[in-house]
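Run folding on both entries below.
>entry_1
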Amino acid sequence: MTARTKLSLAQARRIALAAQGLHEERPDRANARHVKRLLQRSHLLQIDSVNVLVRAHYMPLFSRLGAYDRALLERLAYHPKKRDTFEYWGHEASLIALDLQPLFRWRMARAAAGEGIYGGLARFGREKRAFIEEVRREIATRGPIGAGDLSMGGKGQGSWWGWSDGKRALEWLFWAGEVTTATRRGFERLYDLPERVLPSDILSAPTPAEDEAQRELLRRSIRALGIASERCLRDYFRLEAQDAKRRIPELVEAGDLIPVTVEGWSGPVYLDPQAKLPRRVEARALVSPFDPIVWERTRTERLFDFRYRIEIYTPAEKREFGYYCLPFLLGERIVARVDLKADRARGTLIAHAIHPERAIAPEEIAPALADELRLMAGWLGLARIEAPKEWRRMLEL
């Protein structure tokens, strides 16, 4: 290609939405096939402990499928014989499509060597290898078990042998791929050996060379993103900058990434050779802070002119929009932020605040937002919806 393809910002936005399946109509009744298809499209779902609304890994499927049965994802994630995912560090802690497991073995090997993990855990791995091996043997004997089930409390044996060190040993083993998540008890991981959790055909699959595994992860990234900068590409699976800088020119040379220019974007931008460009996108979705469409905040700002920061860790008096604000996607734009909470004790979905984007009239978005809030309330088993007084009439609540 002698001259770069030039794309408008609107075209780039539609490509990104289509890559994430946000251009498609929701099914009347989502089934396991729909869930599996979306998992294959995004490759992973981020896991997060925040449960003010619903656990993070459930939300991207709701945004695309509507009120699906969460048990469908549970079966794909943790069924002892029919699982389609494994847990590992993909984009943060993630449920990752099972066929990608060989592509992360280089990361596991680096972790085992004390690389690519935070310094304190790497040091712990070097200095307390005997203790870590004892923890691994206990899992081999008793697994699957949770961190709280470990017998190695280590009372009276010094600071290295306390409960927190048992947890650190488990984290090191998890990073190194020596244990994995068999299932969860509530939200607590239950650890076991990979050979007792993962299918034999996955475990026996060849281990790709590190460079090829990274190239394939970047191929998967561009497929999931549609269009992306270098930073967006490496952020998807959290590749190190130096690794991505080596691999991306190789993928351009091979035709797996097409350099393009996008209106208003500076720096290199890459297009998926198989990207879809719909004529229009008529999406309607409340989007989790942990959804791939808004993971990389600079990309979100470029694509949607939407500056987004989650304010969970911001002191209450300094919050601008609310504790757990979800972007509201309508058509091809993010038109509002909705600060939501599921009050399970009262059976109520609470919209603490609704903030339309600039130049967006509340009346313009209220009917679609009301539909989405009703859908979410029903999905979560909540009988009532509360909203700010000035929105109640518009939302017809």
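>entry_2
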Amino acid sequence: MQDVRALNEFVARESAFVDNLTAEVGKVIVGQSYMIERILIGLLTGGHVLLEGVPGLAKTLTVRTLCEVIDASFARVQFTPDLLPADLVGTVIYNHQKGEFTSKLGPIFANLVLADEINRAPAKVQSALLEAMQERQVTIGEATHRLPDPFIVMATQNPIEQEGTYRLPEAQVDRFMMMVRVGYPNRQEEREIVERATAPLEQKADKQIDLERLRSASQAVRDVYIDDRVKEYIVDVVFATREPKARGLSDIAAFIEFGASPRASIALAKAARAHAFLKHRGYVTPEDVKAIGPDVLRHRVVLSYEAEAEEVTAEHIVRRVFEVVEVP
């Protein structure tokens, strides 16, 4: 018990900045605590985060504000149908004075990259982003360049039903640790938004932590204890999306074309640790897995034609999985 107590005290010290950081973001952002928490989990684990919601829900402002409270390099790329890979990763230019070709690095060379409206860019740009997200490097001409550490993509996308959007390839979607659905604020929050938007002075967020503090917190997240029974629970949940009949989920078996990949198991374990860290706890509980599970799994379950015909969503599939899989 002494080890658990010591670990709890260690995590409590390392996570002390979280409340101050969240309060600082709250100076600019009203509500959206769910989205802010998920982005913090991405920052602490080095996982890319995809935010989906209709325009006007402060997705871009939230990411920008979080970047302001962390002393790290930040770049925003507005994805459009005419965007080229070179606009993102950079290109090779000829230097007349030196008589040689040199690499001109693109905006992706930053710690935090905001890919705004990512699903408005064509497939060739998505492919360029794919190497960067997975390998943490990009190739320009014949040279390979390492990206900064940390390197995290925070992407926003509009619902695919909207005009001028492209469906992201499954291979790229799987690279995102979480896909977070962003909803409307409640009435009280919207009233506060109107109040702040019409105030004479604009609120600004001040820096709270630097990159070294973020790296230290990320290391502390890796030290959060996760019991073998919780690991088994994570694997059971992921396997239930692949073998639903064997797990007592015959009612949804016909709706799943492909289950979640092994990346889902890794992401669930990492995100559950970060969730416990944000709650100032040194150990993971099954409730951490259930809390973060929908965001990790919803974009990794590929639905069948039957699901589309019956209007069954990935949300329904994931909810059923967590209802049926036994909690340790």
